[in-house]
Amino acid sequence: MGIDLIAGGRNKKTARTAPKSDNVYLKLLVKLYRFLVRRTDSNFNQVVLKRLFMSKTNRPPLSLSKLARFMAGKEDKIAVLVATVTDDARMFEVPKLRVCALRFTETARARIVKAGGECLTFDQLALERPTGKDCVLLRGPKNSREAVKHFGPAPGVPHSSTKPYVRAKGRKFEKARGR
Question: pTM to 2 decimals?
Answer without folding.
Answer: 0.87
